[in-house]
Design goal:
Layout lengths: L11 H16 L13 E5 L4 E5 L5 E5 L6 H14 L1
Antiparallel strand pairs: 1-2, 2-3
């Protein structure tokens, strides 16, 4: 076995960019299905067990709280309900 070479290591800036992209996908602003802008926010209130998706265009959608869901799961649920109508 040869020792691990530094030339085979992934640069730190590449690792940070992947981490930042993941955080952006999970928590960031989402595309609004009504207006198409990146202004849709999903607010999760764990104490009151309610979730609200709201955009500046006036779209507001309440959802039921599910403990195992992340904000991106709520976004997918919203998109399914919006295009189902």
């Amino acid at each position: 076995m040869s020792p691990r070479k530094s030339r085979y290591a992934v640069p730190e800036w590449v690792v940070k960019s992947f981490r930042n992209k993941r955080k952006e996908l999970l928590y960031g602003p989402y595309n609004c299905p009504k207006c198409g802008m990146d202004k849709l926010r999903i607010q999760v209130n764990k104490e009151e067990k309610e979730v609200t998706a709201a955009c500046s265009c006036g779209l507001e959608y309440p959802m039921n709280y599910v403990a195992s869901f992340e904000p991106v799961d709520y976004y997918n649920k919203l998109m399914d309900q919006f295009y189902k109508k």
